[in-house]
């Protein structure tokens, strides 16, 4: 006999037959058909190399081998019950460290403010928030899950869409009032991206639509752009949810500029995890929390109204 040949499902059937006395009664107890119980009992006897029951007119009578293995089978039953119970407790507790990878702006504006609420719901979870610009490799377990603006591909990855957000031209309320309805995009000073980011779609938009604009600031630090715009330095392009959080307002513009506005970039946001970790309690808890908090109704889809006029 090989130990690996003995399956818990077969041991469970052995115990039911031993306790019920007949194949039919054991099958009813387990919710199986009689033929399945008979087949699995025979497989266990073959694995053990011993007959466990004598067939009689009254039913099944335990053989000597059955009495010898009964204690071990019941110990196996107890261990299985303990495993199930403890696994259930871990599921409820959801404890441990979860490493979340995301871009700096998403980290600062949307994720970090939610962590106190997450901690209250799951006090035994600790978060490692990786806000590096470089995307971490989830297949190499550099992070447990990620929030990304580009959909990740790969058989080992699970991906769920969170939101779509449009980029808009915005400024501080004071600058927007002063500017009025723009006849040209160059009517206001701008905050733009540094030259190493010139290929970004929103950087190209500004270069193409306002080539002679007064660029008051160039920086690849998006949070610095928002802070400068909030201080009244100039207008900028940013996703609508950030505009709302930074207390900026969309610029008004003449109807002739509407085609330019329709070309504003749209961002997608995805939550991504490794398939092997998706149902691990600590990861599942954080995944569900972020999904609930950040999905469309959670503030990641902007609600700014059209500002042509």
- Give me the secondary-structure category: alpha/beta
Strand content: 15-25%
- SSE pattern: HHHEEHEHHEEEHEHEHEHEHEH
pLDDT below 50 for ≥5 consecutive residues: which ranges?
302-309
> What's the assembly state of these chains?
single chain
Integer count of domains: 2
Rg, Å, rounded: 32 Å
CATH topology of the largest domain: D-Maltodextrin-Binding Protein, domain 2
Tell me, what is the CATH class of the largest domain? Answer: Alpha Beta
Total beta-strand segments: 11
**End-to-end distance:** 85 Å
Q: Sheet with the most strands?
A: 7 strands, mixed
Written overview of the protein:
It is built from 12 helices and 11 strands. It is of the alpha/beta class and 309 residues long. It folds into 2 domains: 91 residues, Winged helix-like DNA-binding domain superfamily/Winged helix DNA-binding domain (Arc Repressor Mutant, subunit A), CATH 1.10.10.10; 215 residues, D-Maltodextrin-Binding Protein, domain 2. Strands 3, 4, 5, 6, 9, 10 and 11 form a 7-stranded mixed β-sheet that branches. A hairpin with a 2-residue loop joins strand 1 and strand 2. Helix 1 crosses helix 4. The termini are far apart.
């Amino acid at each position: 006999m090989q130990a690996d040949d003995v399956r818990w499902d077969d041991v469970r059937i052995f115990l039911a037959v031993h306790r019920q006395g007949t194949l039919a009664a054991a099958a009813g107890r387990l919710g199986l058909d009689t033929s399945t119980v008979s087949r699995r009992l025979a497989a266990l006897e073959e694995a053990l190399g011993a007959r466990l029951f004598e067939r009689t007119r009254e039913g099944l009578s335990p053989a000597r081998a059955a009495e010898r293995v009964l204690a071990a089978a019941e110990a196996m039953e107890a261990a299985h019950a303990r495993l199930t119970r403890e696994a259930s407790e871990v599921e409820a507790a959801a404890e441990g460290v979860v490493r979340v990878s995301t871009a700096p702006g998403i980290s600062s504006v949307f994720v970090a403010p939610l962590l106190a609420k997450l901690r209250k719901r799951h006090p035994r979870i600790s978060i490692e928030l990786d806000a590096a610009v470089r995307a971490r490799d989830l297949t190499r377990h550099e992070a447990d899950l990620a929030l990304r603006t580009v959909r990740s591909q790969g058989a080992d990855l699970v991906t769920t869409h969170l939101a779509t957000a449009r980029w808009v031209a915005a400024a501080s309320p004071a600058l927007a009032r002063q500017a009025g309805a723009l006849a040209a995009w160059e009517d206001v000073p701008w905050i733009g991206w540094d030259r190493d980011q010139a290929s970004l779609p929103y950087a190209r938009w500004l270069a193409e639509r306002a080539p002679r604009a007064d660029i008051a600031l160039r920086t690849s630090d998006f949070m610095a752009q928002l802070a400068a715009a909030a201080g009244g330095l100039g207008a900028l392009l940013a996703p609508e949810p950030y505009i709302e959080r930074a207390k900026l307002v969309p610029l008004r513009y003449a109807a002739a500029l509407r085609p330019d506005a329709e070309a504003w970039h749209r961002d997608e946001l995805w939550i991504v995890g490794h398939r092997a970790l998706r149902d691990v309690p600590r990861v599942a808890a954080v995944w569900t929390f972020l999904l609930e908090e950040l999905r469309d109704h959670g503030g990641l889809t902007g609600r700014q109204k059209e500002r042509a006029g």
